[in-house]
Task: structure prediction
Amino acid sequence: MKRILLTTAVLGFLILTACMNENTRVRGTLYIIGGGERTSGMMKELVDIAGIRNSGYMFVLPMASSVPDSALLWAREDFTETGMKIITGFNFRQGETPPGSQLDSLRNASLIYISGGDQSRFMSVVLNTSILDAIHDAYKNGSVIAGTSAGAAVMSRKMITGNQKKHPDTEEGFITIEDRNVELIEGLGLLPDVIIDQHFIKRQRLNRLVAAAIENPDQLCAGIDESTAIVVKGNVARVTGEGQVVVIRNSAGRKTIQDGLLGSDKLELSVYLPGQSFKLRR
Result:
């Protein structure tokens, strides 16, 4: 009995130590925008959080866009209006060896901004490369990592692609809540326990996130509306902007499948407004 109690105590200590180490290892902040128009207030807030109005610089990653050079230009225009002075960026290309000077610049940026477009396109360039390592290094060392639309989706470890496995050619969106229909691939992993969905209320994506929550009980599922963002520091996310954030948890892990349809009687759903906060892990 004493041996069992001792083993339990040791395991508890190791888990607590791991959680503490995880929190102290990461000093950065995430600013995750659900897409759409970014209000001037949000842009100024992002710059202020990064602390780069008078010093430091911003690095734009435009690889999610089908027109990355234009995405880089647009980002520069948007952030110049906030009073930022030094805005750089680089269109890393799939399969090419990243220039060391650009990696160093990325790693040391005070703010890294990931544009909208196609999250799968972005990850095809970044996954398992020194680019991903540089982003993680910057985040751990205190940088702000921001992204909008596709740039929001990539923050997750389990990333929503937007594709439907069972209905790949449909243009109607997710009109059902089905088993094994939501496609998830590996994202940046800055949020290891959170799945991000974007344009959420505007594009009526509740069915998709409900399905993701039922099938991934280890993940908190957060749907961020347009002109809205969550600011993540440690284990807390604060809502900012003009819209709402819908959070779904399947903490009980309940899942029923009938004729391919998903069911669960223990889902928790919350709707958060600007200024409100929620914990990512309990």
